[in-house]
Each structure stands twice: as C-alpha cells, then as structure tokens.
Amino acid sequence: MTTKSKNISNGTGRRKTAVARVYMREGSGKITVNAQEMEKYFTTELQRSYLLAPVELCKMKNKDFIITVKGGGIEGQAIAARHGISRALVKCDADHRPVLKEQGFLTRDPRKRERKKYGKAGARKSFQFSKR
Fold first, then answer.
1. Cβ proximity of 80 and 22 under 8 Å
2. Which domain holds residue 17?
3. CATH assignment of the domain containing 35
4. Relative to the CA of 112, which of 3, 37, 80, 132 has its CA 20 to 30 Å away?
5. Over the stretch 34-62, which tens digit does the pLDDT of each residue have?
6. Is 72 inside any structural domain?
7. How far, in Å, CA of 72 to CA of 78, rounded?
8. Angle at 97 between CA 64 and CA 63, to 5 degrees
9. CB 83 within 8 A of CB 90
10. What is the Cα–Cα distance from 3 to 50, expressed in whole angstroms?
11. Which residue from 79, 80, 86 is spatially nearest to 101, judged by alpha carbons?
12. Domain presence at residue 32
C-alpha cells in the first residue's frame, strides 16, 4: 500500500541543527509530534503558537499533521516544524504561498552556530592573556 492513497502532502523544515519532517493529510485537525500529542511535546504556549500560526493563517484546521523532529533544541524544533508545515501547505495548494511568504514562514533561517577555531577557547573567545 502506498502513502499517496490517503492524499498525503509532506514538507521538510530546518532551523539550526533541528530537522522536522511533516506529513499532512485529511482529518480532524490533530497534530502529533514524535508520536506524542503536540501539547505534551511542546510544553510552552509560544512553541505551540509557532506550529499553529501557518495552519490558522491558511484556515486549514481540518488537516492532520504528523511531525517527526530530531536534532537541536526544543525551540529550534518548533520553528523547524513551522517551516515544514508551511512547505506542506504550499505543496498542497499553491494559493497559500503569498500569504505564508509575507509572514516569513517559508524562509529558512540561515543562522547557525559558528565552529570553534584552533588556538581559541571558543569560536572567537581567546584564552586568558598574561603579560608576565
């Protein structure tokens, strides 16, 4: 049995090192994250609002979202999931693109952690200097 039989649309979202795979299908508006309810996985109201923003903006509350996230922190995972949901909505219906693009939900945040350099304590911090 193929996954295309249930009219599934998917999208991948990224933020820092967090990656979210989002599968969207017809349903009752239930959002599951890593086989848990959204409220259980994302505990703060801000993180939940990240996920629900593109859904409410496009008025697609009758869709079910199955999200798998890995890597990064919980905040980065929430933003990556928002990015993935937005991409799935655009793949489902291209008319949503201008609305989501205006809000910045389709733009991948390019900021990443800077790597540590040799001869330094961190990315830019130097070791303590002693003149004498």
1. no
2. 3-103
3. 3.30.230.10
4. 37
5. 999 999 999 999 999 999 999 999 988 89
6. yes
7. 10
8. 10
9. no
10. 27
11. 86
12. yes
Q: Is 24 helix (H, G, I), strand (E, B) or coil?
A: strand
Q: What is the pTM of this model?
A: 0.87
Contact between residue 12 and residue 77 where contact means Cβ atoms under 8 Å apart? no
Query: In this structure, are residues 83 and 20 in contact, taking their beta carbons and an 8 Å threshold?
Result: yes
* CA 117 centroid distance within chain: 29
* 113: in domain: no
Residues 6+ apart with CB under 8 A from 89: 9, 11, 24, 54, 55, 58, 60, 96, 100
The Cα-based distances of 36 to 17, 39, 66, 110, 115 in angstroms read 21, 8, 10, 28, 33
| Residue whose structure tokens are 């949901």 | 85
pLDDT, one tens digit per residue, over 63-85 is: 999 999 999 999 999 999 999 99
